[in-house]
Structure formats: C-alpha cells, structure tokens
Amino acid sequence: MNKGARSWGAEIAAVGMTVILFWIPFYFIIVNAMKNTKESSLLNLAWPSSIHLWDNIKQVVAARDYMLLRAFYNSTVLTVLSILVLVFICAMAGYVMQRRTDKATPWINFLVLSGLIIPPAIVPTIWVLESVGLFKTMTGLVLVEVALGFPFCVLLYKGFMSAIPREIDEAAIVDGCSGVTLFFRIILPLLQPVTATIIVTSSVGIFNDFTNPLYFFPGSKNATVQLTLYNFSSQYVTQWNLLFTNILLITLPPLLLFIFFNKKIVAGMTAGSVKG
C-alpha cells in the first residue's frame, strides 16, 4: 500500500471517528431538544413531527425562578476568576522552573508532575476549606479549580519557555531591568500563544465542571450550568425534551469558543516542542 492510500485511509478513519463520537451525539441532542415531551421520551434520532425548540427554551430558562440565568452568571464568574489566577500564577511558576537549575529543581518538577497523577481528595479538601472559612464560597471554589489546573498549565508554560532564548533575559538585566520588570514587560508578552491555549482549554473545562461545584459550592443559589441538569431529571420522572434543551444551551458557549480558537490551541500546544 502506498503512502497516498495510507493517508486517505487515516483521514477517512479520523472523519468516521469524529462523526461517531461527536456529530451523532450532538445531532441526538439537537433533535430531541426540538421535540415535545412524548416524542423525546422515545430517545431516538427521528426528526420531530413539529418543532418545539423555542417553547422548550422558554421553559428551561424560566425553570425554578430563572435558575439557568443565575447558573450562567456563576459559571462565568468562576471561569473568569480561575483563568486570571491560573495565567498569572502558572506563567511565573513555569518561567522560574524553566530558568532555574539547582538541586531543588528535580524535586519541584516531581511535585508539579505528581499533581497530574494524584487524584483530588474530596473530604479532606472540604475540611480544609471549612477550616479557613472558604467552604460554599466562590473564592474557595476558584482556589480548587486553580489547584487542579495548576500542574497542566505550568508544564505548558515551562515547555513553551524553553523556546525563548536565555539571551533575552541577560540582555534585559544588562539594560537594568529588575526580575519583575523582565517578566511582565518582556517574557509575558512572548507567552501569548500558550496563554491563549490555556485560556481556551481551561475555560471549557472549568465552565463545564460538574463535580467541584457540586461538592465545594452547594446550594441552589450557587448552582453552575452543569448542575441545572438536575432540574429536569429525577428518580421517577425525566423531562427529556427540556433536559436536552438545557444541555444544548450550556454546550453552545464552550463549543463556539473551541471552534473559533482551535488554531490557537494547536499552536500553543506544539510551540516549544522542538527545543526542550
């Protein structure tokens, strides 16, 4: 088999997997979001006999005293604050870890890498947050999201930083720049590609997070978008048309963000991979 045939085979396989894993489930959500209660309970891919999407949207938005609007606000605040802290902290940590070489460096790298391996402990984390008065607060949830995203973001910044020559640092220091001025005025602007990657990938993950808000930010007034799915699903009755409409509404913002910035994501993930 020649290279051209193998290339076509790989592309067809990739397209097929994309259709099966993404487009068919997404079509399933859209179709059932347009149905009435009776038709959506069949849970099939059939096109609805009549379109009820707008009526379903109005019911979803108005449910439980417009809980979805509060959830969008909470998720947006959580995402923006978490991303700001992540970018600020992880960029500095990645810069120091890449530039610093001493006996402590391997241990620091090990501790950061262990954050990707060791699973989070829910009960001890709740105990710590309660001890410092941050349980059921937005600040506490932001700190949890930052702690969980810290290892991945630091490693991305560190890998990208390896492509920035040390001569830039030395020239800035010779010109009289302090460490803070060097980082914020020279290094940080050069990190825009990987920063864009972190903003998009982390935003999607935090915005769609279900587990952490459920455990660390309980309460109907504190609900985030993923927790609103409970509004239409219970032990005995599930309103499938409203549930799928809710899923569609909370899926569109991160989906559009990912589609518009996918090139920046690829650029940021691959930058720095040549020079280690």
UniProtKB/TrEMBL annotation:
Subcellular location: Cell membrane
UniProt xrefs under Pfam families: BPD_transp_1
SUPFAM superfamilies assigned to the protein according to its UniProt record, in alphabetical order: MetI-like
Any single GO BP term: transmembrane transport
Keyword Transmembrane helix listed: yes
Membrane topology: Multi-pass membrane protein
Keyword Membrane in annotation: yes
Record field: transmembrane: 12-34, 71-95, 107-129, 141-161, 182-207, 240-261
Main location: membrane
Domain ABC transmembrane type-1: from-to ranges: 72-261
GO cellular component, as recorded: plasma membrane
UniProt record similarity statement: Belongs to the binding-protein-dependent transport system permease family.
Protein name as catalogued: Binding-protein-dependent transport systems inner membrane component
